[in-house]
């Protein structure tokens, strides 16, 4: 009497450590970035955890670590994505220097309103508590903007604007825009209850442009 052979199960393919299983919460890197960006536009950075990002993307938290390694690296990738998608990178693009500066101020205010926690992300998560890589990236982002202001002033060559410290100009525009965006709950308490905040922001935007441009006028 022969003994029936038992059917042998195929040995499952081994996968690398942390590698996601195909078909199991199969979420791509871009979807995770989009989920993190959505959260960072709505919440303070400290509340945007790996678990919360994974929940927003309907993914396993292990995927965040697989694609990015750690939370700081992911937040840095999101910061790059947000600034890139905003298309607010400073450029002269052949415009008159004072017109280029005015456009940049408008775009800065619009961007900070669309992402009111962006600069808290830069400072609290990527600079203060970040890695050498994230600190270097934050420094590079800000130096790019300082360089833009320097180029504007150099291109103008004192014809219409005074030659001021480009770092101070960067701090003025960024700081004022950031405060308007982050202090909006307080600002709402200072205006009539039926105030359209988008219209108010547009008015403040042109006010800021006028203050900066007129203040730089060569005498």
Oligomeric form: single chain
- Relevant CATH superfamily of the largest domain: Tetracycline Repressor, domain 2
- Globally, the shape reads globular
**Strand runs, count:** 0
- Please report the number of helical segments: 10
Tell me the distance between the termini.
111 Å
Model regions low in confidence, pLDDT < 50 over at least 5 residues: 1-18, 21-26
Largest sheet: none
**Helix proportion of residues, in percent?**
55-70%
CATH architecture of the largest domain: Orthogonal Bundle
Order of helices and strands: HHHHHHHHHH
Based on secondary structure, the structural category is mainly alpha
In short:
This protein is mostly helical and 219 residues long.
Provide an overview of this structure.
By secondary structure, the chain is an all-alpha fold. The protein has two domains: 29-81, Arc Repressor Mutant, subunit A, CATH 1.10.10; 87-216, Orthogonal Bundle (Tetracycline Repressor, domain 2). It has ten helices and no strands. α4 packs antiparallel against α6 (118-128), α5 packs antiparallel against α7 and α6 crosses α7. The N and C termini lie far apart (111 Å). 25% of the residues are buried.
């Amino acid at each position: 009497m022969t003994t029936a052979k038992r059917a042998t199960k195929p040995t499952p393919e081994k996968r690398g450590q942390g590698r996601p299983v195909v078909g199991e919460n199969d979420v791509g890197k871009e979807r995770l970035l989009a989920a993190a960006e959505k959260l960072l536009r709505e919440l303070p950075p400290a509340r945007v955890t790996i678990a919360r990002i994974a929940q927003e993307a309907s993914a396993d938290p292990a995927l965040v670590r697989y694609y990015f390694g750690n939370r700081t690296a992911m937040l840095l990738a999101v910061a790059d994505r947000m600034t890139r998608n905003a298309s607010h990178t400073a450029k002269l693009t052949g415009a008159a220097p004072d017109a280029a500066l005015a456009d940049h101020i408008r775009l800065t205010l619009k961007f900070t309103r669309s992402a009111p926690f962006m600069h808290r992300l830069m400072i609290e998560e990527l600079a203060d508590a970040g890695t050498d890589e994230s600190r270097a990236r934050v420094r590079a982002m800000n130096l790019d903007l300082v360089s833009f202001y320097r180029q504007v002033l150099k291109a103008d060559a004192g014809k219409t604007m005074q030659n001021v410290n480009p770092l101070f100009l960067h701090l003025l525009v960024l700081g004022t825009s950031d405060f308007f965006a982050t202090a909006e709950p307080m600002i709402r308490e200072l205006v009539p209850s039926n105030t359209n905040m988008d219209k108010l922001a547009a008015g403040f935007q042109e006010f800021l442009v006028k203050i900066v441009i007129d203040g730089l006028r060569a005498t």
